[in-house]
Amino acid sequence: MINKEAEIIGVSDHLATELPALLEFARNGKLRFPPEALRVIDLDGAQINAALDALQDSIDHVRTVIVPRV
What we know:
Blueprint: H1 19-27, E1 38-42, H2 45-56, E2 63-67
Parallel strand pairs: 1-2
């Protein structure tokens, strides 16, 4: 069987030692993003594929956060 493969690579511009402080900022509501700069989607194949297609096609340059729903 031959299938298409995809790889998602994340980039962080912070040191590992800075992550606890950043998480605390986010937890306390001190880390905010302009609404037009951040998109939140569900952990759903169709939504993720649409976000990846938009990125590949350079339709938008919005950061996407995938949130698993319980």
